[in-house]
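User: Now give one protein:

AI:
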Amino acid sequence: MKDIFFRKRVLPERQELKRSYDVVIVGGGSHGLATAYYLAARHGITNVAILEKSYIGSGGAGRNTTIIRSNYRTPEGAAFYQASVELYEKLSAELDFNLMFSQHGHFTLAHSDRSLVVQHERAEVNKLLGISSRVVDRDEVKKLCPQIN
């Protein structure tokens, strides 16, 4: 499987634009690239231009971690989350490229009483929708992630 960390990076030269495209995508981040990929893979649309002001992946999508979170409050949001997880689980093999996807929990810290109420609501809705979710107290946060003070 290909891996971006174990090969020399060579940026492609800019190409001249054609007179027309079936689809023009503005932005070469994760959303733009995913759109181009699925247009080709699922719909056979390959006459696509991706316009990027810098280089592919130069924005936030190329520098930040991505969280596929499950704190949705609707059945539609929960279904979207589940479909996203399933997509990412298969995507590295489909692309023959190590996306470095791994599943870990995440914290959403409550900084006010209202925020804590919202966290409890989200956890309960997630549980009702079949998604593992819980609110932990300050002591458990310290045990799970001692770096948080």
